[in-house]
Amino acid sequence: MEISTILFYVFALVTVGSAAVVTFANRLIYAVFSLMFTFFGVAALYVFLEADFLAAAQVLVYVGGILILLLFGVMLTNRIYDLNLLSERVQFVPSVVVMGAVFALLVMVIINTTWPSPEVVSPASTTKEIGSLLMTHYVLPFEVAGMLLLAALLGASMLASKGKDEEEEGEI
Amino acid sequence: MIVLEHFLVVAAMLFCLGLLAVVTRRNAITVLMGVELILNAANLNLVAFSRYSDTQINGQVFAVFVIVLAAAEAAVALAIVLNIYRNYQMVNVDRMDSLSG
Predict the structure, then answer these.
(1) Total tally of structural domains belonging to chain B
(2) Would B35 be classed as within a structural domain?
(3) Phi, psi angles (nearest 5°) of residue A78
(4) Is A25 helix (H, G, I), strand (E, B) or coil?
């Protein structure tokens, strides 16, 4: 077996294993930290797919941004002394059965389909390609995404600041 | 030899685990984490198809947009969750039923 294949299985195992911890862990804080390993694992899989720009963006945006936000969410919505609290679950067994069936169906479809496999030579660096595509063919979605980020920024800061005013009034 | 199917199966596992987290967990933060897992699975599929088919790099550009949407969604959703916690002192999605008749 080639070394790259072994490495692929290692990273796939890390990704799926830590995703399973996210789903099944009883302690919320364990779930958040194992989500970090999932994000790193997916970034490593992007490297296997020769998507270097996306791997870097994955680490920067997910691990550096979204994960920190989620960690803040966990810290702020639980009092420090019940960080060990058990996360409640409902309908656990039926959900596992249904999801197992969905997964079996997906794997059956994946295995039974004949996928085209053309030998595509990917460019040495994807960053330049993605950048020029964003500025030419995808310029309208690019601008719309910019507007969306602006709206999300304003919306999030408005939601947060309104609560802060109420808090100050409550303290006085 | 790593082929397309390997990545598709990994993405299918991530998707199922994410959906399982969304439907079984009652904590709003954990539900958001499940959504992030699902988005990662979709991204992995997009990049894998972009690598193993002749669509060149368009799949990766699409994945960039998915990452942008995930970031915006996480920021707004967490602001909402924090406000809910401030008003109700809990983040259990089953008990957020003030609007139900």
Answers:
(1) 1
(2) yes
(3) -130, 140
(4) coil
Tell me the whole-structure pTM to 2 decimals. Answer: 0.88
Cβ pair A159:B53 closer than 8 A: no
Provide the 3-class DSSP secondary structure of residue A37: helix
Token code pair at residue A1:
């077996």
The residue in chain B having the minimum alpha-carbon distance to the alpha carbon of residue A92 is B24
Do A148 and B65 lie within an 8 Å CB cutoff? no
pLDDT digits 0-9 by tens, A33-80? 999 999 999 999 999 888 889 999 999 999 988 999 888 888 888 765
CA quadruple A10, A12, A18, A24: dihedral sign: negative
Q: Is residue B98 part of a domain?
A: no
Set of chain B residues whose Cβ sits within 8 Å of the Cβ of A65: 71, 74
Q: Which helix (H) or strand (E) element contains residue A166?
A: helix A139-171
Test mutation, A62, A63, A158, chain B, max B CBs within 10 A: A62
With beta carbons under 8 A apart, name residues in chain B contacting A122. 51, 57
H or E element, residue B86: helix B58-88
In a domain, B48, yes or no: yes
Domain extent at residue B29:
4-92
Residues of chain A with pLDDT under 50: 172
Please, which residues have CB within 8 angstroms of residue B39's CB and are 6 or more apart in sequence?
A: B66, B69, B70
Task: Compute chain B's Rg from CA coordinates.
Answer: 17
User: In the block, which residue shows the tokens 């990917």?
Assistant: A122
Q: For A69, which of B15, B17, B74 is closest by C-beta distance?
A: B74
